[in-house]
Specification:
Length: 368
Amino acid sequence: MKGIVSFILILSLMVCPGIANARDNTTHTGMPPLVDSLRVKHPLDFCGERVPIDNQDVRERLDREMLLALWNRPQVILWIKRSNRHLPVIEKMLKDNNMPDDLKYITLIESALRPHVGSAKGAIGFWQFTEGTGIKYGLRIDPDIDERRNVFASTRAAIRCLKEFHKAFGSWTLAAAAFNMGKEGLQTEILAQNTDDYYQLYLPLQTQWYVLRIIAAKRIMTNPGMYGFHLMKDDLYPPLKYDRITLECTERIPIQIIAEATKTHFKVVKDLNPEIRGYYLNKGNYTISVPKGTSKRFHSQYKKLLKRWMAQKGKYIYVVKKGDNLFIIADRFGVPLPALFLWNNLKTDELLRPGDRLVIYPNTKKKP
């Protein structure tokens, strides 16, 4: 029995080395003890509005969010590294609209600054808009483009939304709460409980924690070194460098042409424009990002490549014959079945008829 107790004690010290250094200011890893990280040494505010930290319930909620954030150290490191890439854009847009800078921290807890992240409720992008709410605040969301993934467009929508909520409630704290649970839901709770003090409202638990989660992110990001995050400038992800161009598509064109016109890869174009869905741009006008320094010659290069592509496209037309189906055609030409859907903008339940025309590009990667 004594041997088992000793083994458990040794194991606990290995897993939780801070236990051995509980009286020190920092652990041997340079991380401050979690208890020290919870101590508030100065007044707190959110968007200039006081956080009543002397209220025990508020203190407990803040402790919870600080502990959860600090426990997930890899996530915080990614917050810091990504913030150098995306937050300057959001900060400038908030400043240009006379909005409090603290609102930028909403993106950290909503998406961790990931453009493609989605929720079980269908919310997507930097600010986690659902489709209906995104469209309401001016975002384009259709089979071709989803602007919830675009930092510029989604931040414009968030600014419109938060301005509306601030006008309705007269408080940025309540505006943030409404951003989480909805304007009408919060208005209902205020009327039912006869108070418009966020910290005194009994709300869905997620919303009760929501603003405190933002405040926890603010505390950590304002002084990461205090919490043991010592990143160098070279550790941070560099800001994206790009030019913005307008593009008119007279027909459905492949994104690969845009990549070739800028002498880059398909992935680079997609990463610079996360709002673009799929592999093609349908007929219409677009404003897109291209690698920095490539905009000057883009349109002349694009026209040449588009002309060549259209000429080549005519060479690869297959006329569907009686007895054909997509499986047979794909096998005959040695191309993946999904490629036929992609090249021809087909739906999965679409039926072929004799005389239909399909674009089928040769498989230059076929195995011998």
